[in-house]
Amino acid sequence: MKQAHCRILANGLLPSGHCLLQVDCTPLAQPARAGQFLMARPGTDLAEALRRPLFFSRGGDIGQLLFPTSMPWQQELARLQPEETLDVLGPLGQPFILRPGASHLLVLVLAEPVAPAMAVAHWAQRQQATVSVLLWHQQWSHLADLLPESVECSVAAPRAMAHQESSLQWADQVFVVAEPEQLPALSAAIIGARLRLPSGFAQVFLPADFACGVGACGACGLHLGRFHRRVCADGPIFDLSELL
């Protein structure tokens, strides 16, 4: 983790309602891994004390940050122009890990942020895994253009989670972006398709309020399973079998 000023290389608004920032991440001294994020603020706005979480849709020295533009702070970031900078802290969070022997990865995007799912799909494809992405909302369909051509991408809605039996049987690992209230239905669908929910099979990215990004403030705390989790520090990726 490092504090740095990262230069914006390109900025684009997408038909899905997202902004895509391409950023020079070399000042961070380490490339972000799939599932990680930055706590960022405009580098020229000294009056803005709060940093906001931005998630990588693709890591590397030239990273891509994808975020919706529904909130005022997101709209402010979306107005940044090439050669302006982000004052960032990161990379933060525990990255996604493809378990040994996994060769078929199913990525389910049930909620925002969509970016970690895009990053995981890119990374798993580079690890020679076959990747299938299911987007849960029709307005996200244009995001398929951000994925490699070898990654299958489709829109799952309006089909319910219970109708994903064949996809869950095909996969030997699943990555899901989901709200906590969606986890019981996800678990039931996996058990229905595979008869059990084995440890390590389903990795879940949990959205939360990230105020500090390092677990110190407690704003991202959630009671999940038998434990209290600090989502930004202990996650944001967790094993589904440990959350229920």
Q: Can you tell me about this structure?
A:
17% of the residues lie in helices and 34% in strands. It is an alpha/beta fold and 244 residues long. It folds into 2 domains: 2-92, Translation factors (Elongation Factor Tu (Ef-tu), domain 3); 104-242, NAD(P)-binding Rossmann-like Domain (Rossmann fold, 3-Layer(aba) Sandwich). It has a 6-stranded antiparallel barrel with strand order 1-2-5-4-3-6. The protein has a 6-stranded mixed sheet with strand order 9-8-7-10-11-14. A two-stranded antiparallel ribbon has the order 12-13. The protein is globular, with a radius of gyration of 17 Å. The model has no long low-confidence stretch (mean pLDDT 89).
Structural class: alpha/beta
CATH superfamily of the largest domain: NAD(P)-binding Rossmann-like Domain
Largest sheet: 6 strands, antiparallel, barrel
Question: Strand order, biggest sheet?
Answer: 1-2-5-4-3-6
Summed up, what is this model?
The protein is of the alpha/beta class and 244 residues long. Helix content is 17%, strand content 34%.
Characteristic key phrases:
244 residues, Elongation Factor Tu (Ef-tu), domain 3, Rossmann fold, 2 domains, six-stranded mixed sheet, globular
Task: Present the secondary structure layout.
Layout: E1 2-13, E2 18-24, E3 37-42, E4 52-58, E5 62-68, H1 72-78, E6 85-92, E7 104-109, H2 115-126, E8 130-135, E9 152-155, H3 165-170, E10 173-177, H4 183-194, E11 202-205, E12 221-224, E13 227-230, H5 231-234, E14 237-239
Parallel strand pairs: 7-8, 7-10, 8-9, 10-11
Antiparallel strand pairs: 1-2, 1-6, 2-5, 3-4, 3-6, 4-5, 11-14, 12-13
